[in-house]
Amino acid sequence: MTTRRYTQRARAASAEETRERILDAMRAALRSAPREPLSVEKVAQAAGVARSTVYLVFGSRAGLFDALGQDLLERTGFRRIVAAVALPDARDAVRESLRASASVYAAERDVARAVYSMWWLEPEAVRGVFEVLERGRAEGQRTLAERLAGEGHLRPDVTVDEATDILWMVTSFDAFDQLYRGRSLSEAEVADRLIAVAERTLWT
């Protein structure tokens, strides 16, 4: 290996380490003060870097939130939801996607709660992470509702539009958190309750 190539790899590893330190500091800040606006200065200090470094790595405060959203999906096992939705029986897809969603939400509950709360306080600042976390959920629930109807499982008195709305509600972070934090249920218990809602309202 040439000295130049070694130096390039070392720099890339150092840049990735810096990026992870900043994201770690950001998650810690959101957990410790979920109702306060996120300060890039404080995140930089906690990560042990200059404020300018945060902007150099992420481009902007919005870019920092975008990266957080993607990082959360990767850390919490979002692929489980994707795999669940692909199951051949739509009813199994609904059940397993709700279990996977509960696992994803529980894995970083405090950070997710801060992000969803900040949506009402600073929508422009957190738009990126919010859209990353919510990306595809509406279309995914519509697809599941259409599959339930197409496979003959959807109750005759429930339309595809109504089924989409019900699935949108039961797969939301707020539905999860009302039971998880509000009712002190475990992750598995929350999933069971939400699955029961889906089963009793959507199919026979």
Question: TL;DR?
Answer:
The chain is 79% helix and 0% strand. The chain is mostly helical. The protein is elongated, with a radius of gyration of 20 Å.
Query: N-to-C SSE series?
Result: HHHHHHHHHHHH
Separate helix tally? 12
Radius of gyration: 20 Å
**Residue share in helix:** over 70%
Observed structural traits:
204 residues, mainly alpha, elongated
Description:
This protein has 204 residues and is an all-alpha fold. The protein has helices at 3-32, 40-47, 51-58, 61-76, 79-85, 90-107, 109-121, 123-134, 137-150, 160-170, 173-180, 187-202. Helix 6 (90-107) runs antiparallel to helix 12. The longest helix is centred in the first third of the chain and has 30 residues, at 3-32. The protein is elongated and about 60 Å long. The model has no long low-confidence stretch (mean pLDDT 87).
SSE topology sketch:
Elements: H1 3-32, H2 40-47, H3 51-58, H4 61-76, H5 79-85, H6 90-107, H7 109-121, H8 123-134, H9 137-150, H10 160-170, H11 173-180, H12 187-202
Helix pairs in contact: 1-2, 1-7, 3-4, 4-8, 5-6, 6-9, 6-11, 6-12, 7-8, 9-10, 10-12, 11-12
